Request: fold
Amino acid sequence: MTLAIFDLDNTLIAGDSDHAWGQFLSDKGIVDAEEYRKANDQFYQDYLDGKLDMTRYLEFSLAPLAIHPMDDLLRWREEFVNERIMPLMLDKADELVRSHREQGHFILIITATNRFVTEPIAQHLGVDHLIATDPEIVDQRYTGAISGIPSFKEGKVIRLENWLKEQQYTLNGSYFYSDSHNDIPLLEIVDTPVAVDPDEKLEQHAKENNWKVISLR
Reply:
């Protein structure tokens, strides 16, 4: 089966869900607003610049999950998706996903953003499977740690390859859509890499390698 693989943030939605979740927590007073917002913005800039320390960022971003009961987290997440994510949905992205589905392709999202934030978004988009960074859960509470390998940069390749082995799929005929130069390692191993509203580094790399460049905005 042909795989149509998508990054999520700034690809299928017009924003970054991880950064938006941090803003939501700050705006609602769930975290120390000023300090958390400042750190959240700096980590996001580091990501854009290609110098994000993923270990430090995950310690920061997963800490609020470990502090609060699951019921509160799920209630806040539902509010977050309705208030902050739904306005970021893109009609052209929906059309693209639908086009692949009509061709009988398997629709897969692979994102560095953690599963707690991205799972309801993936469900709304109606994809077949989600690979995301997995926060550790013990006794129905998040621990603040991660389970397994973060799906970031080369980690996306590792996570995808492990999943392919489990499912007995291959990358023959595969597509991958992304906006970020952080995803070049995965873009380079699919049959059809597509840069979507790319950042400057990815746009240059795509032009040098004759990759398709599109906009969903």
